[in-house]
Design brief:
It comes from Nocardioides aquaticus. This protein is of the alpha/beta class. The protein is built from 19 helices and 17 strands. Helix 8 packs parallel to helix 9. The structure holds pyridoxal-5'-phosphate. Pyridoxal-5'-phosphate binds next to helix 5.
Length: 452
């Protein structure tokens, strides 16, 4: 930090303050973690200074031999870790990984057959008229993904996101009574809509998915099954999700972030079958710019860590701790979407405390508990204010929390929510954002969490 401070002290100060915040609060954001010193240090090197557009052994720049080594090692670890036929480690984020996946599927399933029919090797050989027809065909495909309020991600066909604009999209939800994924309803929707791409995976669904069943549905309607395991890839890597719950043997293409339960650097990956590998491998420059060699190096280090037995112990603890957290809420009268959890996250409906998700989130933050507000199925408050709080166990499990600490965490959160009232706007009207936290509660919670 001294080196940084000599150039721009405000950045050194903000970095130091972030360390204090992350150590001094209860970090329950389900998509966050604490990467190891080895991962963090690997990101801060001169590998960052090298341009290497293209792919291993086929670069648009000279002198990429060391980046080739880094990228090959990262991809090898990813293949071994997940038992995948092919791994692409260049995506800079989860959204990038999903865009690479979408365009690779379109290239493989729509563009390649059209080129073959026209006797062209690549799109540059097409006449302007043929290219225009192909471009329109690419833009006329269908995607079916899980809706945002059922726990899906905005990249799964949500209209404000490019995925919702690129495709004709429809969404599937969960059973309105149980909150669980209804495979029969999904199959019926897929039969009717006939998507080219069926996306499974979630950001806020607290249950496991039977990917073998989803693959059957995809096969029946001729869809490519793409699973976005951004949230639970740590549980796949750590062999908590196996068999039908492991997406890798069942999906054609699997995407993930590397920084959530997988505990690596910020970034994304795409795994694919041999069939889809050649088009995914063209992710740069099809979708991406020059790869971040320093981050690919850090991914390799994180994957090497995740291949150790200790990571399996960690992943199991993440799932066990989520159960402890859920039971902690249920025993104190909490209302959980789907009634519990069997992955790394818990979705608490805060309506019974008379609060919106936004009010709950900010009251908890005052008490040093970092969570994020989240929609619940058929949310009456919409996606901005919401009615839920999403909580995840990956980060605090890395800090060594176990059953007792997570039970205590549920107790502290319940105490904050029971002692928070909705506030009013300056003009005195109802507000979905304003809240009043009872005196003394924030300090009480902060003192209790400092002892954990
Ligand atoms: N996919 C899912 C399921 C996610 O939950 C997220 C992030 O929250 C992403 C993709 C996007 O990841 P990133 O923020 O790295 O682009």
């Amino acid at each position: 930090l001294e080196v940084i401070s000599a150039v721009e002290p405000r950045i050194a100060q903000a970095t130091a303050a972030e360390l204090a915040d992350q150590r001094g609060s209860l970090k329950l954001i389900a998509s966050e973690n604490y990467a190891s010193p080895a991962v963090l240090l690997t990101m801060g090197t001169w590998l960052s200074d090298k341009y290497a557009e293209g792919t291993v052994g086929h670069r648009f720049y000279a002198g990429c031999q060391n980046v080739d080594t880094v990228e090959s090692i990262a991809a090898e670890h990813a293949r071994e870790l997940f038992g995948a036929e092919y791994a692409y480690v260049q995506p800079h984020s989860g959204i990038d990984a999903n865009l690479v996946a979408f365009w690779s599927i379109l290239a493989h399933r729509v563009e390649a057959p059209a080129l073959a029919e026209l006797g062209a090797k690549n799109v540059n050989e097409l006449s302007d008229a043929d290219w225009e027809t192909l471009r329109r065909t690419l833009g006329d495909q269908r995607l079916l993904g899980m809706s945002l309020d059922a726990g899906g991600h905005l990249t799964h066909g949500f209209r404000p996101n490019i995925s919702g604009k690129m495709f004709h999209q429809q969404q599937y939800g969960t059973d309105p009574t149980t909150g669980l994924l209804d495979y029969d309803a999904l199959a019926a929707k897929a039969r009717e809509f006939k998507p080219l791409i069926l996306v499974a995976g979630y950001s806020a669904y607290p249950r496991r998915v039977n990917f073998a069943k989803v693959r059957e549905i995809a096969d029946e309607v001729g869809a490519t099954l793409m699973v976005d395991m951004a949230h639970f890839s740590g549980l796949v890597a750590g062999k908590v999700f196996t068999g039908d719950e492991d997406p890798v043997p069942h999906a054609h293409v699997v995407t993930s972030t590397t920084h959530k339960s997988l505990r690596g650097p910020r970034g994304g990956i795409v795994l694919a079958t041999e069939e889809y590998a050649p088009s995914v491998d063209r992710g740069c420059p099809m979708v991406l710019g020059g790869p971040l060699a320093h981050v690919m190096a850090a991914k390799a280090v994180a994957f090497a860590e995740a291949r150790q037995d200790s990571f399996r112990t960690y992943a199991q603890a993440v799932a066990d701790n989520a159960k402890s957290l859920a039971e902690g809420f249920l025993s104190r009268g909490g209302d959980l979407v789907t009634g519990g959890t069997d992955n790394h996250l818990v979705l608490l409906d805060v309506s019974r405390y008379g609060l919106t998700g936004r009010q709950a989130e900010t009251a908890l933050l005052d008490a040093g508990v970092v969570t994020n507000r989240n929609s619940v199925p058929a949310d009456a408050n919409g996606p901005w204010y919401t009615s839920g709080i999403r909580l995840g166990t990956p980060a605090l499990t890395t800090r060594g929390f176990g059953h007792d600490e997570f039970d205590r965490t549920a107790e502290l959160i319940t105490m904050v929510l029971e002692n928070t009232q909705p506030g009013t706007t300056k003009a005195g009207g109802p507000s979905k954002a304003a809240y009043v936290l009872a005196d003394g509660i924030a300090d009480k919670v902060k003192d209790a969490s400092a002892e954990m």
